[in-house]
Every structure is written in C-alpha cells, then in structure tokens.
Design a protein that fits this description.
By secondary structure, the chain is an alpha/beta fold. It is built from 14 helices and 16 strands. A 7-stranded mixed beta sheet has the order 7-9-10-8-11-12-13, with helices on both faces. The two termini are 47 Å apart. Bound molecules: guanosine-5'-diphosphate (GDP) (2 copies). The site of one guanosine-5'-diphosphate (GDP) has 16 residues, from helix 1. It comes from Yoonia tamlensis.
Length: 463
Amino acid sequence: MSFTLAIVGRPNVGKSTLFNRLVGKKLALVDDQPGVTRDLREGEGRIADLRFTVLDSAGLEEATDDSLQGRMRRLTERAVEMADVCLFMIDARAGVLPADMVFAEILRKKNANVILAANKGEGKAADATILEAYSLGLGEPIRLSAEHGEGMGELMDVLRPIYEAHEERAAADAPDIDVEVGDDDEDAPRVPTKAKPLQIAVVGRPNAGKSTLINQIIGEERLLTGPEAGITRDAISVQQDWAGPDGVPVPMRIFDTAGMRRKAKVQEKLEKLSVSDGLRAVKFAEVVVVLLDVEIPFEQQDLRIADLAEREGRAVVIAVNKWDIEDEKQTKLKELRESFERLLPQLRGAPLVTVSAKTGKGVDKLQQAIMRAHEVWNRRVSTANLNRWLVGMLEQHPPPAPGGKRIKMRYMTQVKTRPPAFVVMTSHPDMMPESYKRYLVNGLRVDFDMPGTPIRLFLRDQG
Ligand code: GDP
Ligand code: GDP
C-alpha cells in the first residue's frame, strides 16, 4: 500500500489547489475506482523525491443537499481511515472558524496523524491565524500558499519523517514475530488484537545491552530465529502482549535497533549506523527507552538521543543497565539521579529505572514504567481542573510585571495529548519570562502527576 496523504478541511480553503499542485495536472473530478468513494479524488502526488497517493475531499460545495455537514463528516472520516497522514487545511485569511474546530475534533477522535496547514498564507494578513491555529490542538501549523507554491519545502520537511517511518513500517511488517504470553492454551487460534500496539524503541550506545534487553523481554530464541527469517530490509520489530495494570493484555511493538545494526556488514560503519538507527527508532516510537550502561552512563550520544526524543515529543524512560555488576548500588543511584538532573533538565520527571538485562532483574519494573509513561503521555486534564489550578499558581507566585505592566493570565486549556500540550491566554505573551513558563510546566507535572512525558505550553495573546 503506497503512502497516502489526505487533504481535508472545510470547503474553499484551497484543497483542490494544493491537490493540483501536488499531482501536477488537472484530473477528472470523480474517480470511480472500486474502494475509492466518488467524492474522493485520488492522484499520484509528488514533492521532490517523495512519491505518494493524494486524496482530496473537495468538490463538496457543489453538493446541494441539506445534509452537507453529515456528508462532510463522513467523507472526512473515510479519508482519514484511508490515509497515513492528513493534511488539515485552514484558510489563513479567514482565521480559525467554528467549522475548522469540527474538523479538528474529527481528526483528534480518529487519532489521525495530522499536518496542520494554514493556506493562503502569503502576505501579512495571515500572521494572526498562524498563531491562532495552535488553539486547534494539532501542533505547529505550517504556512502555505497553494496558489503561489509557497511553503512546499516546509511541507516536505514535515512530511519526510512520516513518509520514511511508513516505509520502515512496511518493511518491518513482513518479518514480525508475534509472541504471545500468558496464554495457557497453546493451540487456541490466534485472535488478532484490535488495539494498536504501543510502539517502543530501545535506544542507546553500542554495547549498552539493547539486544540483551529485548531478548530478555521477548524470550531468547524467538528473536534469534526472527531476524534470520528472510529479512531483507533493515527495520526489525517484535510484537507481544504485556499484562497491563488490571491484568488486561496490552499489545506492544518493540523496535529492535540493535537488530538493524547486527545486519550492518561493514564494521567501520557501526558507530554511525547506530546513531541514525536510533534517530529512526525515535520517529517510530511512542515511548523511547534510553538504555545506559552503568559503567559509562550519560555519554554524549545518550544525551543527544534523549534530547531528540524529548524534542520529538516522545514519552521517555531512562533505564540504567548492567546493574548486576554495580557494587555500590545506593551511592551510584544517587550519583545517577544527580547527573540526570544536571545533564537532562528538559526530561525532568522522567522515570529512571535500574535493570539487569542479563539476569532479568528489574525488567518487570521497566515494563511497568513504560506502560505508565505511555498512559501519562495520553493524559487529558479537564479545563475546569486546569483553571482552578491556574488560579492557585498565580496566587502563590504572581506573574512578573515587566516595566510596571502586570502580565495577566485568564484562561487555560489542554489542546492536545501525545504529548500533553496546553494553551494559556495571556496578555503580553512576548514579555513572559522563560522562568515563569518553567514554573507553570513544573507545576503541571507535579500537581497532575505527569512524569516521563514532555509537556508543551503555548502562550496565546488574548488580544
Ligand atoms: P477547496 O474547496 O478547499 O478545494 O478550495 P479551492 O482549491 O477550490 O480554492 C478555493 C479558492 O481559494 C479558489 O478561488 C482558489 O483560487 C483560492 N486559493 C487557493 N489557494 C490559495 C492561496 O494560496 N492563496 C490565495 N490567495 N488564494 C488561494
Ligand atoms: P547492544 O549493542 O546495545 O545490543 O548490546 P548487547 O546486548 O549486544 O550487549 C553488549 C554486551 O553487554 C554483551 O557482552 C552483553 O552480554 C553485556 N550485557 C548486556 N546486558 C548486561 C547486563 O545486564 N549485565 C551485564 N553484566 N552485562 C550485560
């Protein structure tokens, strides 16, 4: 299945214009290929070297029946289901309209991979919408002008990692080894789990113990037979169920970056490869386990990848391996915590777990930390609770008054999960010191118990 991008959004924002630009020629309005709805146009799109299928949900404004809303919703849902990524388009000159909110909600509900684009972005008139667009809770908007071809480079930059991750996944799907645990009836037919598996990557420097850890988790011989079984491309993943908090099985998929590296024929490339493998694994993952070697923890390479995971908005768990060879466990743990705080302040609150991949000690704790980090990463805090909390925070430590002008904060809401992101309506957002933002972020983390996940805080000018 080729990589599919769906362009969605309300009528007249410029979807067809972008579609035509991506496809490069005008296509017939209706495509009656089986499986493609009559309202969805399909074409072969291209930006630079990326080739993909584009779906356009435009053409709706011609529909005259009064169930336009309902049709639009159904059509969008269908496009989302067919697509690997949705380009959600708004009109930068019109601002964020209620109809846009409806689309944003559909996309959020469907858990879609979304690229938010503010089209008609040429000229200054678009500036305000770019900021406003954050309130849709779909991350950073890119600024496009489909008509004038502006912003296509940026679109490509955003698209590329998603595209590459898709290609990797397609490769990874072939050699999957499904390992079932906790099932005492060996012969029972395998019922495919509906839930999307939680995606985990174990990253770390060579010899940190990544393969040993993965083997320990999934069972030795399964992995050993796995990678040999006709793997031609370089992403390897294994899937299994873990026991969740209530004993409910939670499907997991672990990306084996070490396995990728084992396949590297040229030894000199080893170091370089393991870094780029790690980078790719971070793109795949929801939870990134940064595996450190207790003898050489927090090396440059570890710090780089941990920082990348944070910037990419992944949930992070720090695991210190080879704990079995450490004699001074108490002292060492204290030392590790201090280094962690000093060297990775951006990951404050992330769990630090000690394990021995070799003996298996601590591995169950690591698995629990992973599931918990994932849960927190998906956490949603109600607006009512947030605003009660905000009042308390402001009383306890009022915002600064640069030049005698008190910065006022009136309202706060969570706009996104995975990772949690919040918007605060504030006067003079540009004057807000970083230290005050940190105070709020740290407060959120502690008071709403959100360890192990990046937290994003956006300030929005309340005008
Ligand atoms: P759709 O209904 O979302 O498919 O929107 P269309 O692609 O049909 O575009 C609606 C209108 O917006 C047309 O008149 C386009 O020429 C215009 N349009 C599309 N993209 C841009 C843009 O980047 N800038 C400006 N100024 N107008 C645009
Ligand atoms: P990778 O390069 O990160 O995949 O690391 P490996 O899993 O290949 O492990 C590198 C070396 O560390 C091997 O010799 C392992 O036996 C050893 N090792 C891995 N985990 C542990 C552990 O928990 N304790 C000890 N003592 N050695 C370990």
